[in-house]
Every structure is written in C-alpha cells, then in structure tokens.
Amino acid sequence: MPRTGESQNLSLALLQTMGVKKKNRPQVLVVGAGFGGLTFCQSFACREADVTVLDRQNHHLFQPLLYQVATAGLSAPDVAQPIRSILRRQKNVTVLLRNVTGFDLARREVLFDGGSHRYDYLVLAPGSVTSYFGHPAWEKHTHGLKTLDDALRTRAQILLAFEQAENSASDDDKKRLMTIVVVGGGPTGVELAGAFAELARHVLRRDFRRIDPAQAHVVLIEASSRLLGQFSKHLSAKAAKQLTKLGVDVRTGVGVEKVGDGFLEMSDGKRIESANIVWAAGVAANPLAKELGVKLDKGGRVPVGPDLSLPGHPEVFVIGDLACVHDEKGHPVPGLAPAAMQMARHVAKIIRDEVRPTAPQKNRAPFKYWDKGMMATIGRSKAVAQTGKFEFSGWLAWMAWLVIHLLYLVGFRNKAAVLFQWTYSYFTYKRGARIITSAPISSKPN
Amino acid sequence: MPRTGESQNLSLALLQTMGVKKKNRPQVLVVGAGFGGLTFCQSFACREADVTVLDRQNHHLFQPLLYQVATAGLSAPDVAQPIRSILRRQKNVTVLLRNVTGFDLARREVLFDGGSHRYDYLVLAPGSVTSYFGHPAWEKHTHGLKTLDDALRTRAQILLAFEQAENSASDDDKKRLMTIVVVGGGPTGVELAGAFAELARHVLRRDFRRIDPAQAHVVLIEASSRLLGQFSKHLSAKAAKQLTKLGVDVRTGVGVEKVGDGFLEMSDGKRIESANIVWAAGVAANPLAKELGVKLDKGGRVPVGPDLSLPGHPEVFVIGDLACVHDEKGHPVPGLAPAAMQMARHVAKIIRDEVRPTAPQKNRAPFKYWDKGMMATIGRSKAVAQTGKFEFSGWLAWMAWLVIHLLYLVGFRNKAAVLFQWTYSYFTYKRGARIITSAPISSKPN
Fold first, then answer.
1. What ipTM was reported for this prediction?
2. Residues 223-242 of A with CB under 8 A from B
C-alpha cells in the first residue's frame, strides 16, 4: 500500500544507493559495531565516502554494564541499542547483519557467509572473544560474558539454581546449586562476584522458604597474586577487602586446573562443587585475525603501524581489542572502551583527510593513547578508581563510576531506563530483571 | 560464611517449615501463578493454612501486554515479575518451580516430574495454551504468543526478517520477508497487527537504506465475518477501519487452509508468501485437564459446580481459563484476566471460611461473574472499549486502556518502567526493545 510520500522516499533512497555506485565513491567498510566501529562511524562524518558497517548482531552492546544483565539488575534492551537506529541520521552509512568469515586483501574484499563486499578502506573492529587458555572444552561447563545471550543464559542459570535448591531435598545438591564460582579477578570478575553476593544476600534473601540464599557461597578465583592486576596494589587490596565484606570468598594465587560438569579443580588441589561457574578469566583476540594472513602477536592480536594500519596495507586499519598497539612509554594499550574509541577517532580523521578531494594530502599522524584511568565497581557504594597518580575508592569512586557509565551509555532512553533501575534498586534492594527465559526445567527430581 | 543474624533467620525459616508439617496444618496447593493463581494467593490471607504454588515459570506474566514485547515496545522484565518476589511477605506461601504432569485425586496428590505433592485443597489455575485447531504441525511454521519466550522469539524473527530483507538482492525474498501475517482477529490479533504496522511504518522507517520498511505488508486474517467477535458490531467496524488506516490489510471471513514454511493458504484459494506468520487464532484449555479423568466440554475445559469445585471433589477447584462456567444469563464466562481474578477471590473465600476453626461452617456460595467489559488497543490513540451497554473508541478508549493496564500491572517497578517506555515511544516514535537475542544468522546468502 504505497502512499505518495512513501514512494517518493523509497525512490530517493534507491537513487541515493544507485548514485553511490555510479559515482564510484570511496567505499569504507567497518567490521564490528562495538565501541571502535560505532565511534568510527559517528566521528567519520564525511559525505564524500560511503560507509558500510557489518556486524553479527543487530545491536551495539554497552559491554561495561553487561554484568548487570547477568546479575538480574538490568534488562537486555537497557544495555543495547540497534546499530541502525543509532546511525539512522547518517544517510551515507549502511548497516548490514553479516557474519564476516575472511578477507581477500589483494582484491580488497571482505568475505561473509555466501558473498563478499569490496572496500577502498577497511576498518577492522571485531572486538575480542572469551579465552579459555587452551581448554576449549571448558566452555560448555562455564558461562562466558561477551554477548547479551551469554548474560541472559548466566542470569537464567543462577536464578534457576536457586529455584532448584528450593526444590531439592539433598543438602549436597543445595550446596552445589548455591555455590557461584567466578573465575578471573579482573574488573569483570570483581564486578560479577560483588553483584552475585549482593543478589544472594540482599535481593533473594527473603523470597525463599526452604533455603536461605544468604548462605550462598560466592567464590572469586584469580591465578595471579592479587585482584585487579592493572590497578595499584593499594586499590587491589581495597577491592579484596570490600568483596570479603560483601561475603565473597576471594582466592588469589590459585589457578584453575580442571573444569567439569558441576565442579572445578584448582592448582592448590582443592575442588569446588558448583552448578554455576562463570568465566571472566580472560579475553582473546578475535579469531578473525588469523584470516588476515599476517603474523600475530602472542595474544593473537594484529601488530599495526603507528597510524594503526596493517603493514603493507595502508588501506586496512585495525582498531580496538584486536590491535596490538603500544603507548609512548612502550606499554601495551589496554583492551578498554576508551582506547578503542580513541583509535576509531584517529582512523576516522586519517580516512576523512584522504578521501576529501579538497584536503591537501598529509602524512598520517601516529596514534597516541591517552590513558584516562580505570575503574571497577564492587557493590553498593563500593568501587575503586585510578586516573594517573590519583586514586580513590568507596562511595566517591562508586558515584564516579555510576555517572561515567551513565554518560557513556548510548541513547537517551537507555540512560533514563538505567538511571531509573539503579535508583529503584538502591532504595528497594530489589532487582528488576529476575526473569528466567529459555531455561528448561530439569526433568530429574531434585 | 553464616553470620549470627543470618543463621538465626535460617533456623527460624527451617523451624517454620518443620512446624508446618508437625502441626498438620491444611495444605492448599495452587497450580499456576497466572492471574487466577496469583490472585488466589494474594486474597487468601489466611494464616491457618499453608499454601504452595507450583508453576513452570519463575515469573507471573502480565499477558495483556505480552504483544508489546513481541513488537519490540517493552522488555521481557517489564511485563513479568518473579512469583516468589510478589508473594515474599506472605510467609505461609511457598513457591516452587514445578512442571505438573498429573493428579491422583483419590490420594489427593499432584504429580510432577519425579515426585508428588499432597494437598487438602487444590486450586487448579494452569491457564490455556495456543490452539492450532487440530493442526499441531502448524506450530513450527508460526509464532504463538503465550509465554515470554514466544514473544522474544516473535520479536527476534520479525526484526531479523527486516535485517535479511536489507541484505537481500531478490525482490521476491524482500517481499516475503517484509510480509507479516497475523492469524486471528480477536483482541490479541488486532493489537499485534496494529503494533506491527506502526513498527514498520513509523519506528523502522528511516533506519534502513536498501528497503523501505513502510512498504511492509501486514495482513490480519479472521475466519469469522468480523474482527473482535465478542464486541458490538459497531466497534468491530471501528476497529477494522482504524486498522486499515494504519495500513493493515484486514481480511475477514477467510479461514486458514494450510500453513507451511514461509507461506499460508486461505479458504478463498489465495496464498500469501510470508516469513513471519504469527498465530493469535485461538486458545485451548490446558491439556493438563485431561489428567483429571473427568469429562471435559468441547473446548477441553473442566465443567465445575456453582462453587467452582470439581463435581464429586469439593476439595478441588478449577479457576480461570480452564473452568467451564456460565454467568447468570447462561453465557459462558470468557477467558479473561478479570474473570480468573474473580474466580480466585471466590475460591479463596470458600477455603478460608472452611479452614478457619472459629468460622461457622456455611454452605458454599455460588460464583457470580461480574462482566466489567472488554477493550482492545489498535495503535497510537486508537482503541475500542465496551462496558455494559456503553461503548467508546478512539482517544478516550485508548487512554482508558493505558490507565487500566498500568493499574493492573503488578509491581511498582513494572508500572514505572512501562509508563516511561510508553511516554518515550509516544514522543519519539521509537521503541525501546529492538534487540535480537538468540537468533541464528542465516548461513544462506539472501
């Protein structure tokens, strides 16, 4: 049922698309719409080129708040937004749901299931994946935290475990079901462990009749000698203290030897029976890097030139977690959102300068990383933060964490929704997303 | 790490549970925590008996707003709340996640996977299931709308179809992907069709580059001669007119002959190619009714006595959609939330009067249905409503619909969250939950 106005719009859109191809405008292809890819599109702002964004998901995910979806605080749509909706006003940007599988650098093509896209410039920002340190079999016994589906599955598993414990007649089963193990003491692991402890001790506490959720055992395992290894020793100790106060069983200097169905064995010979093992131990470079056919660093990341381009391929840029880059002091640039965003802006400027016919050709500037600092939240009024030599913890760090995460969250609706949920949770000690979806009920008696 | 206060709480809880069994208090078993089951628990308010609620889900679902989850307006947690959280303050109520499979009426037991529960009173409120009118094979080609998972799958499918259309080079594929068929012209079908039309024509409209979502074809099929058969003819016509204005292709008097993978054949010989067939054509009584071993009515519902008890079993009550009950004029009581809630209150009062040792035994009062009317929303500022002989449509009906649904939605958080989403959508023409989760990307080229 086309109406006149709509037909005209369609025709315009078609003409734009066709015009694009006729005029042979530079084609910029962006792989991944995480912090790097999305920031690239937003800061590119150049009408002389067409941008096509390929992503496997229809949404940009605000990773720093994903753990709150896993711990039943936020809904999935609170921390995600459709990529095409964010970029709707940039008419030269096309968003396509594509699963990129490889590259033909010589022909300047990106390959996906069933086809390919040609590019003049390629910006690779596929992010990272969960690393199991050479034990891929552990994946099926643990819950990762990279995608919304991961978070929803983790949430369903933890909530279901408490339901099963309430149903169970066996003390051993109850104990196993009410033990939550978080592997990895980086910011994500610390945030998860704190949030699970609060979930059990405050949120679920009065809702059960046959179990006492406050008796849940939340264990945080870190192989190195301290939590939050990238932070100062002082803040690591603060974080461990705050977590212990929340009831988390913090175990540092203990590696994981084996993970199986419902248990975990550690390097100190101890074994924990747990139905809920959450894996926050590490990230690996996206395996897509292997398809580039270049030598990667130990972590599987792509060594790039000072301008972030692939050596020998000035038209290919790698940004975000996948790029192996060092700052001015020679330290590796961390896989954090601010780093990916800074790289995106750097590359956007280079390409913009090069495709603008009026712009004089300049030598490409080298990328400089500006370390804005780091922060991690531990729980209600508990957080640690450091920026440069300045470090702080407790309520002030927590407020700073809240404000910064709200500011960086994309979209007014999401900001308002998250602010509302946080305010609600703060005053009621409740969480708004304690919903189990897609979880099969065990057919075994518990 | 039990602390003193917590250990005491646990002991108290254990003592309560044990005390319950020792004293041989009357055990009331409720199957299902929909409108009927939940209202029963809330209005029972009787400390002389213990109540155990069994449900297959951990949440009470506010069904009337489920279509807004399917059409990307609301998040799953906005329309659902954990049952045990709603009932947390009623200390004699225990909530268990159980998949009930049958009954032993003689031994007064409810059977579930792997066990049984004994009862003194049984309140059966399992609700209804989607009916495919004797064609169970159609289920796999269509999307139902009874559970949160149904709604999330429908949402993912529709959003994915538009993504695939944007990826597609074939006009036929585009057309098939951008055709949404809603089968069934009752309130749910009308609400879905209106919401899908608005989604395509307003929300998605400017977000794509290669397709024009406003060209999407939304078809509403109803086998009988008019939409909203339970409403007056005048309101049926109004609804059809309002839907047509939204761009919905309304086809009444047309039955479904065949449904297959990506197509639907109708009784008028026409065939529609569509990747998105949503089934809102009817509900059937929960098949659990068959396990009672009594004669059911044509719709599979349980004929009950005037007091809503099972004939021959005064200790077993059937309420909500599963009960075959008639009002004073001999009309069947409709399967609506208000009816289920009225039945729940009626049964709660009967059981309360009987278990209170001080209360004089009375004859059980017959159930009387109070018809408060019906309403259905069609879209922005469009709705129809009738109560008694009074009927209205348009903006007034729409506002009434909004207010009543907000008031009946369980929980302050959900009320506030939904009010926020509605206000946001009203002013921005956006929807907050356009997130595809758990959707596989087709490996075929489109």
1. 0.88
2. none
